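=== How it folds ===
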Amino acid sequence: SESRTAVLLEPFVHQVGGHMSMMKYDEHTICKPLVLQELSFYESLPLAMRQFTPQYKGIVSVHLKKDSLGNLTLLASPSLQTESCGRLDNAIGDSSVTLWHKCKWAASTGSEHTRVKWSHMQLTKTFKDSCPGKMLLRTDLQYRTDSLLEDANRNQPERNSYNPWGLHCHRQHLNRMSSKHNENKLHQFLLLENVVSKYNYPCILDLKMGTRQHGDDASEEKKARHIKKCEQSTSASLGVRICGMQVYQADTGHFLCKDKYYGRKLSPEGFRQTLRQFLCNGNHLRTDLLEPIILRLKALLSVIRKQSSYRFYSSSLLIIYDGQEHKENTAPLDNHLHFQKTNCTASNGTNHSRVDVRMIDFAHTTFKGSKGNHTTYDGPDHGYIFGLENLIKILQNISEGK
């Protein structure tokens, strides 16, 4: 029955970019609304690309639940066995479900900051109670109620104990679903590997790759809009732009966060400075990360060059590392040192830190044999290759101290 198998979908708090809500299914799995073109990509994924994409875990049916007060939750009917922490023995009575019924994401006269602050504290408490050791949010990070969105002076608050972008997307997604569909409608979601689950403090850079972002199926209006975004950002000049970022700052215990609106405004030099910022933990530049990131990007470049007919329009590339350094790589902390642009001093570690590079978001990816009526292209995706080559070059320059 539903009450024994339903899984409450939580907002994925480490979503740093995109507009579609990513949901946490269990500790090692996230889910997102199914798009046939993306499913087609995962089902026919070339073997060589599998190390650079999240593992595809199947499809799950999801439906919207609304209580008498209009509060919204998403419940999944799993086709997979999940950990006991992920299953709800009594969907309506479970404390975490009750919480999300109470957390009013629908339009409200209450303060958004108050609501987010309340939900953060309650989430930490209820998930600590129901899943010991597997909290949604870490309580050892100091909480800040700052919104990531710009204030009246067009400035972005930077330091947060979690990235609010995921909650922003989640709230919008629930409201869209509620306005378009009734409760009984089943929605299909993709189940994918949570590629940051192994990191204690996941530092994530979301890069929109390539010189073209619109898919073959885009309307003329959408096509013109995406072309303009590319021309006005580093997508045209570098073949890559920043779509979102979170970096753990060891000197403050906060995450430094940037969103896609920040990334769109960057000049090529601003892009380089932000890339350097992504590698700085508030005390020093993580030079120990540069070589493993560059090597992994070069390996990906080699694979992409061999993929004939593939066009990864509007896809992103994630660069991930753990903000918690190995002890032998940790420099003495100075609580009075704050990061400003490029004042991080270099710190050379003896061991390579764990890093990861993953391609995500394939809703507009096309290739020979993909579903739908799409143009068939010859050769590799040169726009994507252009972006990767520039990314590697910039990181090499940072490594050489340029």
User: Anything to note?
Assistant: The chain is about 30% helix and 20% strand. The chain has two domains: 1-82+166-196, 198-326+351-401. The first helix runs from residue 2 to 5.
